[in-house]
Design brief:
alpha/beta; two-stranded antiparallel ribbon; 7 helices
Length: 203
């Protein structure tokens, strides 16, 4: 046996945690419990709540509040689409979401482009959150959920329903009311209502 092999073998023996020892003619087995918390492995349950959020409404916030009860972290992801011109820029939507979700624990706000399933895999998310307001939403959401499953089977889609008082609420309706000079403070957070007023006043 070469010196190097002998050295490795001897060092390996010295580093082994003794599990048994010879006591007289008997072989005594000894159990050495690991220190509590020494090897704790915790898997983070992460979900993505994607959308345009142009603008974020109280219905969106209700869905986010429900989602954080089910997951360790909820990533609110603003979809960036160069081919679709929104009222608010992507950065403005991200800032409004950060402001309005600052008091909701375990929420992270970001933006993404490209395929949702690729973004979910990048963040190691296991689920996609979608809000359902009425039966009219279901057909489109059902198709998208099946397509995402076809693209990536490891990611599930979870549908959440907001409070009944928000089932009629949508970003499109809120923008239309604000454009016509109506008060939208009952439908969106105050900071969002102010942002809409500025947009349509200056516009």
């Amino acid at each position: 046996m070469c010196r190097r092999a002998h050295w490795r073998r001897s060092i390996g023996k010295r580093l082994q945690w003794p599990a048994e020892r010879q006591v007289g003619a008997k072989l005594e087995k000894r159990v050495f419990p690991l220190p509590r918390g020494s090897f704790t492995l915790r898997i983070v349950r992460r979900a993505i709540y994607p959308g345009s959020f142009d603008p974020v409404t109280n219905g969106h916030l209700d869905v986010i509040t429900r989602a954080v009860k089910l997951f360790d972290e909820v990533v609110v992801a603003v979809a960036h689409n160069d081919q679709k011109q929104g009222l608010l820029t992507t950065d403005e939507r991200v800032e409004l979401l950060k402001n309005t979700t600052s008091q909701i624990p375990n929420v992270r706000v970001t933006q993404f482009d490209g395929l949702l399933v690729n973004f979910a895999l990048k963040l190691e998310a296991t689920a996609v959150i979608r809000g359902l307001r009425a039966i009219s939403d279901f057909e489109f959401e059902f198709q998208m959920a099946l397509m995402n499953r076809k693209l990536e089977q490891s990611i599930e889609t979870l549908f959440l329903m907001p409070k009944e008082e928000y089932t009629y609420l949508s970003s499109r309706i809120v923008k239309e009311i604000a454009r016509l000079g109506g008060n939208v403070e009952a439908f969106v957070p105050g900071v969002v209502a102010e942002s809409l007023r500025e947009k349509f006043t200056l516009g």
